[in-house]
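Hi all, long-time lurker, first post. I run a small reading group and we've been trying to get comfortable going from sequence to structure in the token notation. Rather than ask abstract questions, I figured I'd post a concrete chain and ask someone more experienced to write out its structure so we can walk through it together at our next meeting. Sequence below, copied exactly:
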Amino acid sequence: MGLIELIFICYVLILLITGLFAFNLNKTQEDYLLAGRRLGPWVTAFSERASGESAWLLLALPGAVITVGISISWSIVGIILGIIASWYLIAEKLRDETAKYNALTIPDYLHKRFDDDTNIIRNFSSVIIAFFFLFYVSAQLHASGKILNSLFLIDPYMGITIGAFVIIFYTLMGGFTAVAWTDLFQGFLMIGTLIILPITGFIEVKSSGVKISEILAMASSVFENNNDYLFKNENFIGGVFIALSGISWGFGYLGQPHLLIRFMAIKSSKDIRLARRIAIAWAFPAIIGAFFVGLVALLHFGPSFFLTVDAEKAMPILTKYLMHPVIAGFFISGAVSAMMSTADSQLLVSSSAVTEDLLYKSRFKNRFRGNPVAINRIVVIIIGIIAYGIAIFSELKSKSIFGIVSYAWSGLGSAFGPVLLLSLWWKKINRNGALAGILTGFFVTILWSNISFFSNIITERFSSFVLSFILTILISIYYHDKN
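-- Answer (accepted) --
Happy to help. Here is the structure in token form:
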């Protein structure tokens, strides 16, 4: 066993021990789901960032640079703007509002905010969260298969199985306390990987005499024989659609439940200002670094290499090629960190949507008299197993992590982002407008992504969010004036 493998195994053991240590800290639902609302600004910021970027940042984004090309830069612009917007427009107000309504989940907040005695908003919101998080968690498990295959050369299906076991176990045992504190450690690993790896790669680039402009010219030549620019050689309208499709990644940050619970769990809204600075300072080098990881991998291995090797494995392969085994072990653990820090949060949010909102606050609540934390843990197992099945299917069908994450990101961001933003800043929003926005975001994402004519023009991330935002306003105004 080499040093890389030894460091990785030690890292996984640390995660499992953390889950066991945090087990006795979870005595109530608020402890298990929000760490008792006692997180400090550093833990909140690193947890939000580590969970927000996931394996998408370390695997899918470098892979997209290789296979899509320089036009992926628009996505980077959108991501950075989205992070800034969520911390400035959502974080502080959501912390105060959810505390005022004593809401532990996003569906519960929306239910109480709009005084929905029919329970429709809560039920639909919970179903939407559970539905899209099945795909989102499966993407992280799929990533574990790719990482472990690159590291140990084991079968990807076995890698998915191992990743699923570790994530389900420490989420099951430790709840949000374990999730948040492991995210702090994982966030440091991720940022270290995304700063040091591309810098090391560019030092080698300089020593080899290859110009950065030549690296950029390589992008997109893997599967296409044309030069790729920011607008992919499209006409003006086509170029605008490409830019908007990339920037639309930023919309999703306003409505991702697994990120929003970080804002809800911070000890005080007064801590938001410091946490915001930390999170934004983390985002710039990390996201730009992931972009350059893809470029450096393209330079070192050449376009022809990725005709036979999955481009989304570029980061762990490049790490093993460039770095000392000890450092490579930590960096590859950073990639696993990205995957686990998102999957654990999503498992927790999904289970809370099912238990807290669908079971304990429904008309059938009298049938569920067990310990809420114990019921939550059972639901974590069930959702984890279903997501595991989807991940196995995705590997079988060679689905990309990028595509799966984009689908789930769009569904969650457009269903909740416009409604949350307006509920915090616009007094005229009402129950009918909120319900219209939630359902529009959900259904437009599903329909748009499955109709190639529409999705080839502009991504569902843009169309679903914009339509949800517009309908929320129009329906709210209509019922406000009617009353």
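A couple of things your group might point at:
The chain has a mean pLDDT of 83.
The chain has one domain: 3-398.
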